[in-house]
Amino acid sequence: MNDEKGNPIVMIEYHRIGNLWMPHEVFVSHGPEYPQYCSHYDFNWSRGAETLYFDEAGSCPGVYVNGWPNSKKRMAKLWFDDSAGVPIRQGSGAPVDDFAALGFELIARPLPLGPGNDGNPFDFGVEARVVYCRKCRDHFSEDAHCDHIFWCEQCDEWGGSASDKESCKHRKP
Fold first, then answer.
1. pLDDT tens sequence across 29-74
2. Are 8 and 14 contacting, i.e. CB atoms less than 8 angstroms apart?
């Protein structure tokens, strides 16, 4: 299974959204030339738009998971391609010895995301920069967001309920 550029997907982390398990983080190998170097994508479900948005968050050597140490319950599902030869490490860099202790349930294959989907999140998702509104409790594309959030050119960041500041000093009430 590959991303839209033809590079192999090596790991998908799923989080529960209502009754569904949706991709939350996806790591993609840079291909045969740099197989252990990966691009990291954030996936966010928008309830209002009924859309799975994704955006490349960066690149890193290998695959990292943080998890929920000593969790007593399953917090996320995790699929990874063992044959890719890409090591999965904790955010600290330590190897992962016990996925269940980090709150993960390992699954044998990617979860299908709709009729005719083989579990490839890139086939189901829409690429867009995403912003979260705390008041709406939803994700929006930067191009179609709610009125609670705004982009401040002077601060070069999102304001309103997209940040912890609630209001930007440049915004007029």
1. 887 777 678 888 999 888 877 888 899 888 877 787 888 777 778 8
2. no
SS3 labels along 57-76: EEEEECEEECCCCCCCCCCE
Task: Give first-to-last CA distance, the chain, whole Å.
Answer: 49
3-state class of 84 per DSSP? helix
Nearest-CA neighbor of 29 among 72, 88, 74? 88
Backbone φ, ψ for residue 20 (5° rounding):
-110, 150
Query: What's the pTM?
Result: 0.81
Helix (H, G, I), strand (E, B) or coil at 149: strand
Q: Which residues have C-beta within 8 Å of that of residue 5, sequence separation ≥ 6?
A: none
What whole-number distance in Å separates Cα of residue 79 and Cα of residue 67?
14
Q: Could you count the other beta carbons within 10 Å of the beta carbon of residue 127?
A: 13
